[in-house]
Structure formats: C-alpha cells, structure tokens
Write a structure and sequence with these properties.
Helix content is 42%, strand content 17%. With 410 residues, the chain is of the alpha/beta class. The protein has three domains: 4-146, Globins (Globin-like, Orthogonal Bundle); 155-253, Elongation Factor Tu (Ef-tu), domain 3, CATH 2.40.30; 270-396, Nucleotide-binding domain of ferredoxin-NADP reductase (FNR) module (Rossmann fold). The protein has a six-stranded antiparallel beta sheet, sandwiched between helices. Helix 5 (75-88) crosses helix 7 (116-146).
C-alpha cells in the first residue's frame, strides 16, 4: 500500500505529466536502450521511430498517476498490456531495469522540479504498479504453459500454405513443426511472430491477429505488406514475410494472447466493423459466430479502398449465402471501374452515421471494430451518436494504444 504522503506527491505531478509525459518517455527509452541494447529484441523499432510507443507509455504513466489512489481502476489497462508483455516475453526481471531508467528520465526532464520526495514517491508507486504487472503476467504465463496444446516462449511453426488474398494482403497457414497439439484461442486474439532478418542486428517481434476461428489444425495470420509512406518506413517484418517467407519455411510464434475477444455468452446481435487489414480479427469472430451460433444475427461491414485491396471477400460472401443470419456490406472509398461494373460494393466513400443506421437492423447489439485510427475514430463517434452504451463498444489498436477522442485545437 502507498502512503498518503506518496499518493499526494504522485497526484501533484499529474499536471506536469500531462505536459512533459512524452518528453519523459522519449528520454526513458534513450536511457533504457543505451544501457540495455539487448532489450531492442523485444520492442517494435518502427513504433519507436514513429513515437507511438513513447506516447502509449506516457499515457499509461499519466493514467497511473491520475488513479494512484484507486489503482484497481487501471487493472483493465494492466491486463491489456500484460497480454502484450506475455506474448513478447517480458519477464519479472525486466521491471527493476525499467523502474531505474524511468526515474532517471523523470529527473533528467524535470530537473529541480523532481525533488527527492517526488522521486521517492514515484519509486514507491512504481514498485506497487510493477508488482501488479508481475502478478498478472505470472498468471498469464502459467495459464499459457499449462493449457492443452500450450507452450512457453516461442515455438517453431511451418508455413503449410501461403495464399494471396489481395494486392497487399497474404495469409499464412501455420502448423506446429513438432506435430503437437495447438492451443485453443478466443476469436479476436493474436500471436507474436519472431523473425531473425538477415543483416539485422536484433530480432523483430510483431503481433498479428489470428484470422480464422479456433479448433483448426493450423493457425492463420493474414498480413498486409506495409510499404514505405510519406511519414513512415516500410514494415520490416511484413515485407520480409511477403517477399522471403514461403511454403515450407519455419517461423517462431508465441501462444495466442489479447483481450479484444468476442463475448460468446451474450445472445444479442453482433456488429463487426473493419477497415483495411483490420478485418483479420473480425474474420475470426465471424467464422466462430457462423460455426457455433447460427441463431445470433451478425452484421459484417468492411471498408476498403477498392476491390483490388479487399481481402477475403469471396470467403465472406460465400459464408453469408449459406448463413441467413449474416448481413454483409462493403464500403469502397475509391472503387475501380470493375468494382462499379460488378456492383461489388454497397456504399462509395466513407462509412457515415446515416448509412450505418440503415445497415444495422437492431442497434441493441455488441459492436466490435478495428482498422486505421481515423477509421476507428469515425466509427467510435458514430456509435456514440447512436447512443450505444460504452459497455457494448469494443475495439482493438494494431500496435500501441492511442486515443479515439478528437485532439483539442488550442
């Protein structure tokens, strides 16, 4: 338990963290990797370069300070991050290292404002928060290791099939190299894939959603090739998978993880909304619903630029034809002439509130969505405009968590 003095000290830093949080976390990662370069094997370097990891950590530190007198309030966030940590291989022994450099970063950035009392309070608070992470993650490691077909760390898988799903997305069907059983997983969960790329000093780990339902003889991931853009480098792992990993290759996977999962106990309708490669966890949920819950109405809405980059369309359309409880809609931002001639989509442009209301027969439903952040922000706004309760809204970020709230203009 934290002392009342420490709680008040931590709370006094909330306004400072709101202003300087990202500067502190940038300095933290500089110190961490400068002194422990081996930890670069656990982190997504692209997220570091783009500042996404620093922002996510700053938001977590800020939330911890804000709720320091009611730490159970941040347990859902701890569990969400814990899933990622378990899938990456973060262990209890890493936490003292992180704590050391986080305190050093606070001192470096805040200078004289980081008094001895404030640093002592943060050291005390970090110990309590780290213990919560360690305890939750220990349970996750144990559950993963002991479940039927489970394993610890990374396990060798062979690429049994590689299927081109669109101009930019390919699916990889992965089977255990040891011939052993496969752990079950919840629709919406992901696996981490660890790659040793020729010429790269460090290994690279990425999370990819499982894009089929559980209970098969394989795991399937469907990966978008992330080419270089104006504000981002090409994705090292995604391009390597597309260009160099073929049928028969061996890759290394951690056991399934993640808390963005389908509520299978709720009997109400389900609405699945996806943009781009965000359809991968939705396909897993869709397949599970079609296989196990034929009485549960499902509305599947997918937004893509056009038919050339729309993955798994034939599979979803075929599924809907044989399952009358499924309603399927496609929205194309920039349809091709072929798309128009084939009447391959239901709406041109973006998903908007008016159209969404028409597409959803019964708004009393569970809503799941995933895709690029602007897409998710638009869907989130629309659902709130429809007065959908927060408890019925579920979403997943690919990569570090961000905010779906609009940025204030000062």
């Amino acid at each position: 338990m934290l002392s009342e003095k420490s709680i008040q000290m931590i709370k006094s830093t909330v306004p400072v963290l709101e202003v300087h949080g990202v500067t502190i976390t940038k300095r933290f990662y500089e110190l961490l990797f400068g002194n422990h370069p081996e930890l670069l094997n656990l982190f997504n370097h692209a997220n570091q370069m783009q500042g996404r990891q620093q922002t996510a950590l700053a938001n977590t530190v800020y939330a911890a300070a804000l709720h320091i007198d009611n730490l159970p309030a941040i347990i859902p966030v701890v569990k969400q991050i814990g899933h990622k940590h378990r899938s990456l291989g973060v262990k209890a022994e890493h936490y003292p290292i992180v704590g050391k450099y986080l305190l050093m970063a606070i001192k470096d950035v805040l200078v004289d404002a980081a008094t001895d009392d404030i640093l002592q309070a943060w050291a005390e608070a970090y110990g309590v928060i780290a213990d919560a992470f360690i305890g939750i993650e220990a349970e996750m490691y144990e559950q993963t290791r002991t479940q039927a077909g489970g394993w610890e760390g990374f396990r060798a898988f062979r690429v049994e099939r590689k299927v081109k799903e669109s101009d930019v997305i390919s699916s990889f069907y992965l089977v255990p190299e040891d011939g052993g059983a496969l752990a079950e997983f919840e629709p919406g969960q992901y696996v981490s894939i660890k790659m040793q790329i020729a010429g790269e000093e460090h290994t690279h780990i990425r999370q990819y959603s499982l894009s089929d339902s559980s209970g098969k003889a394989y795991y399937r991931i469907s990966v978008k090739r992330e080419d270089a853009g104006q504000d981002r480098p090409a994705g090292k792992v995604s391009t390597y998978l597309h260009e160099h990993i073929h049928e028969g290759a061996i890759v290394w996977l951690s056991a399934p993880a993640g808390d963005f999962t389908l509520n299978q106990a709720d009997e109400r309708p389900v609405v699945l909304l996806s943009g781009g490669v965000g359809l991968t966890p939705m396909i897993s949920m869709l397949n599970k619903l079609a296989e196990k819950y034929p009485e549960r109405p499902v509305t599947f809405i997918h937004a893509a630029q056009n038919g050339n980059v729309h993955a798994m369309k034939d599979a979803v359309t075929t599924l809907a034809l044989s399952h009358p409880q499924l309603s399927v809609y496609y929205c194309y931002e920039k349809p091709t002439e072929q798309d128009r001639n084939e009447k391959a989509f239901h709406k041109e442009g973006y998903i908007d509130l008016a159209w969404l209301k028409q597409a959803i027969a019964d708004p009393n439903a569970q809503y799941y969505f995933c895709g690029p952040v602007p897409f998710m922000q638009a869907i989130n706004r629309a659902l709130h405009s429809m007065d959908i309760p927060e408890s019925d809204i579920h979403f997943e970020f690919f990569g570090p968590a961000a905010s779906l709230e609009p940025v204030a203009v000062v």
